C-alpha cells in the first residue's frame, strides 16, 4: 500500500467508518433485510424486465439472493447499484419506487457490497465531487429525514489560495506570488474538498522545497528575517521571539502561546548555534510553516459532545472557518473576527450569525487586477461598488460553478470575431458580482438577466451613470481627465453590437466558449453540465467499449451529425442531455448569436459566419450558390417533475428562462453551494441544512446572502462528530 493510499484509507475510515468497517455489519441482518424489504421491492420494480421470462441487457435478478459471495453476483449487483443511484432504472414510463424505497435498496446494496469486499471502491467514489448528485435529491428536500446534521471531524489541507493569503512573500518577483501547493482534484468544477486534498509524502517534500525557496528569497526582504540573518553573532532573544511570533501567526492564523514561544525560541537558538544565523532561521521557519496547523485546517470540535455525539467547533476554529468561507485572509487579519474572539462572540449560534452578517455587510472591493483592454468589459469588472459579491470565495464559487473562466484558456481554430481572454472572464465576473450584490432573485437573474447582451444602448447608459458618479465624487480640477475617459468610452461604443437575444450567463460568450471545442459547439458537454449542475441529475460512467466520436461532415450541421446518438445503445443516456445542449445551436462556437447557417454548394461546406446581411449574401452569390438554412435550436427539458418546466423548447433563450423558474434548479444550485462551503458532498443527514437554506432563499425574495447565513450557521458547518460507532450516515431515519 502506497503512502497516499494509506492516508486515503485512514481518511475514509474516519469519514465513512461504518461501511468500511464491514466486519461489524451483521450478515444475518443483511439477509433478513433482503428477505423482508429488498426482495419485495425488486419483485415489484425490476422483475418484469429482469426476471425469469425476460432479461433485458442480459441482466437476470430472479436467481440472485442476498448472498453476494459469488463474483458474478457482485458484478451484477454493482451494475444495479449504479442504475438505481443514477435514476436510470426503472426506466421512465415504468412504475417507480418511492425515494425512500429506492434509498432502502441502495443502502442494502452498498452495505452488502462492502461486506463482499467492495468497500474502499464504493466509499472513495462517494467522496468525489462528481458523485455528489448520487445522494437522493427527493429525500434531501422532502423533510422526512430528521437525522441531526454534522460534518465528520477532519483535517482539511490548506488550499493554494489560502497560501497566497498568508503572504509568506512580502515582495513578489514579476508580480506573481508563489503558491507552494496545487490542487489534487481535477479542475472541472467545485474542487476544494477536504477528502481529496491530502498531503502525501511527495506533496510534503514538494511543499518543503517550495517553502525553502520562498525563505531564501525573503531573507533580505523581511525586516525580521534580515535582522537575524545579518546579525553579528547570536541574534538577540527579542529579535528571535518577534520573528517566531509573527511567522507563527502568519502560518497558523492564531497567536502563539507561551509554551510554543519558549519551545521555538529554544529550537531556533540551537539551530543558529549549530548552523549559523541563516540556516538556523530557515530551519526554524520551516518547522513553523510545516507544522500541522500551518498545513491543515483543523476542524475537530473542542466542546463537550451533545446528545448525538456532536461537538461544536471552538471559537478559534469558528473564526478560521468563517474567515476562509469569505476569503483567503487568515482570521488574525480580519478585524470583525478578532473583535468577536476578544468579546467571546463565536460560541452562541445567535452571536455567530451576527458575525456572519457583519462579514456580508462589510463586503469587499471589486477585483481590479488583470483588467482587460476592452473598455466596457473593464468597467463592468472593476467599477461596481463594494459588496459581499466581491468576497474572493463568493467570486470563486460562481466561477467554479459556471466555469466561465475556462473560456480564457480555450484556443479557437475556427474563423470568427475574437474576444480577448481577459474580457471573456472580466465581463461575466462583473455582471455576476453585480447581481449578487443587488441580492434580489439572484439565481433567476443569473440565468435570465439581459445585461449579458452586448447591447450598445444598455452599455452607454451604464457609461453615462458611471460618468456622473465619477464627476460627483471627484474635485472639479480632475473633471477634465474624467471627461477624456468618458469620450474614450463613447468611441469604443461605436463598435458595440445591439444584441437583445441573450438571457443570463449560459448565453454569454464566456460560458458558451468554455463548453465548446476548439472548432465547434459541444451540445453533449453543455447538456451534461445542465443535467448535473442545474437539474441535480446523475449520469452513469461512460462504458469503456463505447465509441463517443461524432462523425465529421462539412456538408452536415452539428445536429445532423449527432443523429448517430439516436441509436438505442446511445440514446438511453443521450436522451437526458442532448435535448438540453442542442438549443445552444442558437450561437456559433465563439458564442455569437445566429439564426441561420449558410451553405456554399460550390465548396460543399457551411460558411463560418454567424450572420450575413443581404448585401453580403448578394456578393457571395455572385461567386457561388449560397443556401440559407434556418438554425434548428429546438430541444427539451425533462426530469424536473414540474409540469410547467418539462417539455419542448424552441431555443436557448426559452430553455434558460424556463429553467430559471424551476424549484429543482434552485435547489440544485443550493446543493452546489453547500458542497463549496462545506468542502464535501452532502449526506442525507444534511437534509435539514439544505431545506433551511432553500427556505431562506425563497422567503427572502431570492437573497443569496440569506443562503450564506443559513449555511454558515448550520449544524453541518459548525458541528463535528467522530462517528466511528455509526453504521451509516446516509440511511433515512
Automatic annotation (TrEMBL):
Annotated SUPFAM superfamilies: Cytochrome c (SSF46626)
Lineage: Bacteria, Pseudomonadati, Planctomycetota, Planctomycetia, Pirellulales
Annotated coiled-coil segments of the chain: none
Ranges of residues in domain Cytochrome c: 25-113
Swiss-Prot/TrEMBL keywords: Heme, Iron, Metal-binding, Signal
Highest rank taxon of the organism: Bacteria
Protein name (Swiss-Prot/TrEMBL): Planctomycete cytochrome C
Signal sequence extent: 1-22
GO terms for MF: electron transfer activity; heme binding; metal ion binding
Amino acid at each position: 500500500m502506497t503512502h497516499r493510499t494509506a492516508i486515503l484509507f485512514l481518511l475514509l475510515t474516519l469519514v465513512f467508518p461504518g461501511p468500511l468497517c464491514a466486519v461489524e455489519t451483521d450478515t444475518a441482518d443483511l439477509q433478513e433485510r433482503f428477505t423482508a424489504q429488498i426482495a419485495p421491492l425488486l419483485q415489484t420494480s425490476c422483475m418484469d424486465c429482469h426476471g425469469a421470462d425476460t432479461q433485458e441487457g442480459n441482466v437476470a435478478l430472479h436467481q440472485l439472493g442476498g448472498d453476494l459471495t459469488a463474483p458474478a453476483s457482485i458484478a451484477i449487483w454493482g451494475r444495479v447499484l449504479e442504475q438505481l443511484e443514477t435514476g436510470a432504472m426503472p426506466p421512465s414510463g415504468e412504475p417507480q419506487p418511492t425515494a425512500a424505497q429506492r434509498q432502502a435498496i441502495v443502502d442494502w446494496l452498498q452495505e452488502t457490497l462492502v461486506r463482499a469486499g467492495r468497500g474502499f471502491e464504493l466509499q472513495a467514489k462517494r467522496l468525489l465531487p462528481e458523485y455528489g448528485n448520487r445522494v437522493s435529491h427527493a429525500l434531501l428536500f422532502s423533510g422526512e429525514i430528521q437525522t441531526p446534521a454534522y460534518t465528520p471531524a477532519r483535517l482539511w489541507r490548506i488550499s493554494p489560495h489560502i497560501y497566497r493569503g498568508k503572504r509568506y512573500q512580502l515582495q513578489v518577483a514579476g508580480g506573481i506570488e508563489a503558491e507552494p501547493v496545487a490542487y489534487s482534484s481535477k479542475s472541472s468544477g467545485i474542487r476544494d474538498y477536504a477528502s481529496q486534498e491530502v498531503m502525501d509524502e511527495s506533496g510534503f517534500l514538494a511543499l518543503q522545497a517550495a517553502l525553502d525557496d520562498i525563505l531564501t528569497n525573503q531573507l533580505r526582504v523581511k525586516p525580521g528575517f534580515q535582522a537575524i540573518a545579518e546579525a553579528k553573532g547570536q541574534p538577540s532573544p527579542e529579535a528571535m521571539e518577534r520573528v517566531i511570533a509573527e511567522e507563527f501567526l502568519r502560518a497558523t492564523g492564531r497567536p502563539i502561546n507561551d509554551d510554543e514561544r519558549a519551545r521555538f525560541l529554544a529550537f531556533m537558538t540551537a539551530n543558529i548555534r549549530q548552523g549559523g544565523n541563516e540556516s538556523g532561521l530557515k530551519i526554524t521557519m520551516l518547522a513553523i510553516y510545516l507544522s500541522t496547523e500551518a498545513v491543515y485546517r483543523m476542524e475537530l470540535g473542542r466542546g463537550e459532545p451533545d446528545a448525538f455525539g456532536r461537538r461544536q467547533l471552538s471559537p478559534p476554529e469558528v473564526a478560521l472557518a468563517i474567515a476562509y468561507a469569505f476569503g483567503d485572509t487568515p482570521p488574525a487579519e480580519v478585524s470583525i473576527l478578532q473583535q468577536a474572539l476578544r468579546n467571546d462572540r463565536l460560541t452562541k449560534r445567535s452571536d455567530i450569525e451576527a458575525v456572519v452578517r457583519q462579514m456580508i455587510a462589510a463586503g469587499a472591493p471589486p477585483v481590479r487586477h488583470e483588467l482587460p483592454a476592452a473598455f466596457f468589459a473593464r468597467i463592468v469588472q472593476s467599477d461596481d461598488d463594494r459588496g459581499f459579491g466581491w468576497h474572493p470565495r463568493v467570486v470563486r464559487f460562481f466561477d467554479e460553478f459556471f466555469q466561465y473562466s475556462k473560456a480564457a484558456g480555450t484556443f479557437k481554430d475556427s474563423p470568427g470575431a475574437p474576444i480577448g481572454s481577459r474580457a471573456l472572464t472580466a465581463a461575466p465576473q462583473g455582471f455576476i458580482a453585480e447581481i449578487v450584490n443587488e441580492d434580489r432573485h439572484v439565481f433567476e437573474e443569473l440565468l435570465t438577466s439581459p445585461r449579458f447582451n452586448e447591447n450598445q444602448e444598455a452599455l452607454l447608459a451604464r457609461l453615462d451613470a458611471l460618468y456622473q458618479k465619477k464627476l460627483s465624487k471627484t474635485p472639479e480640477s480632475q473633471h477634465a481627465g474624467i471627461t477624456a475617459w468618458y469620450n474614450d468610452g463613447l468611441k469604443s461604443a461605436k463598435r458595440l453590437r445591439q444584441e437583445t437575444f441573450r438571457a443570463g450567463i449560459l448565453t454569454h460568450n464566456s460560458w458558451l466558449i468554455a463548453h465548446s471545442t476548439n472548432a465547434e459547439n459541444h451540445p453533449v458537454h453543455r447538456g451534461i453540465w445542465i443535467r448535473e449542475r442545474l437539474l441535480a441529475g446523475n449520469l452513469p460512467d461512460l462504458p469503456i467499449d463505447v465509441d463517443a466520436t461524432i462523425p465529421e461532415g462539412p456538408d452536415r450541421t452539428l445536429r445532423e451529425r449527432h443523429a448517430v446518438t439516436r441509436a438505442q445503445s446511445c440514446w438511453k443516456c443521450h436522451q437526458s442531455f442532448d435535448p438540453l445542449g442542442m438549443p445552444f445551436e442558437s450561437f456559433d462556437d465563439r458564442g455569437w448569436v445566429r439564426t441561420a447557417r449558410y451553405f456554399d454548394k460550390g465548396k460543399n461546406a457551411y460558411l463560418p459566419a454567424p450572420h450575413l446581411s443581404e448585401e453580403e449574401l448578394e456578393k457571395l452569390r455572385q461567386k457561388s450558390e449560397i443556401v440559407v438554412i434556418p438554425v434548428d435550436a429546438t430541444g427539451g427539458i425533462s426530469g424536473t417533475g414540474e409540469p410547467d418546466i418539462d417539455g419542448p423548447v424552441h431555443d436557448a433563450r426559452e430553455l434558460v428562462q424556463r429553467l430559471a423558474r424551476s424549484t429543482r434548479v434552485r435547489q440544485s444550485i443550493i446543493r452546489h453551494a453547500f458542497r463549496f462551503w462545506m468542502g464535501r458532498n452532502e449526506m442525507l443527514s444534511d437534509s435539514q441544512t439544505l431545506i433551511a437554506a432553500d427556505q431562506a432563499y425563497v422567503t427572502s425574495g431570492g437573497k443569496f446572502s440569506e443562503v450564506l447565513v443559513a449555511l454558515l450557521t448550520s449544524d453541518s458547518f459548525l458541528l463535528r462528530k467522530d462517528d466511528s460507532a455509526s453504521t451509516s450516515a446516509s440511511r433515512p431515519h
